[in-house]
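hey so i finally got around to running the thing on that chain from the lab meeting. sorry it took forever, my laptop kept dying and i had to restart like 3 times. anyway pasting the input first so we r on the same page abt which one it is
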Amino acid sequence: MYFGPFPALLRIPLNLICPAGRGGWPRLSGFLAGELALFAFAGLVSSALSGTSLSTRARFWLGSACLVGFVFATPFLFLLGNLSIYSEAIIWGLAWSIAALFFAWRCRKAEGRALTLSLLGFSICAACALLSRVTFGAPLILIAPLLAMRLPRPNRSRNFVALLIPLGAGIVFHVLLNYAKFGSLTGASYEFYINSAHREFARHHGIFDLRRVPYSFADYFNLALPSFHLHRPFLTVDRHPISYSAPFSLPLSETFISLSWCSTWLVAAAIIGTGCLFWRGRSDYFVRWIAAALLAEFLCILSYFALAERYTADLCPFLLFCLVVFLSAGGIMLVRARYLLSALIVVSAVINLSAVSYWLGSDRNLPAETQIFWSAVAGIKRTQIR
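ok and heres what got predicted. didnt touch it at all, straight out
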């Protein structure tokens, strides 16, 4: 309902070409989304590192480490390992969001035909992100006016059309589809939701409320140690209760491991990158505008009325962009921090892989083959699966 139609639009031609594949497209869809996200992130990191004082060899190794961290030490691994209806649209939204940021970053220094193509790429990716999951697309809509204001006089009309048409078409389609489904232009309603607890809570307390931000931040970034063991599975995780006074629809959080542990490297780099945003000479208004738009998405998810591991993906565009700001700042700070960052990536990847494999290996709601694979990775005996 509140997910966008992009995964469904992807299935329409696939079902026409191969009707026998109906119901079996999530793995192909997830693979394509994962490849898009990986290539977009690689391009973003490469562009950020290209202007630093690091040697070619150092840039290669640091960029490769960041790619490893992105795959194994972010919520991306959990989403790809659990290709359910809840995860697929989020994966596509995250992938298109990163791709749009890649093209927006290229617009900083692009000229002529390269600028037109970058604007067109941003517009298409932003429209697809909106149609995948509105929380990923909304900040990109806020970034579009920035790109429009920076258009140079030569070929301004052509560049404006390249920026406006795909994104405008995506917005119109999204609005009309919402009206067709719900009789509302925004579609932001839980009146049709099958879960009565969420439906009634949203009706009386609202879907978004900034008073929830401190509680959500404490849950998604808490420093409580996961449960470690000296035998397999080495790490066990589970849902955990939250305070009954906390303004959420359920007394439980489905965040089985916080970003502070599964993505320590990314959180640390994002903190430094946030500092660079306010450091004179390390950023400009272009970078700050994009960061502010992504921060709006960050706060939006923190104000949502439920807590779940899959929602941490909506926090990633802001964290990843702050990482890029840190990498692009270069200087002695990056030279000294690159070894520490690489070490944190290894530690985060081990913790995240252990947590995800245990969680998915013990989730009876998953298909049997998926559960068997992850339980083997985690070292869970079949009698241990809850």
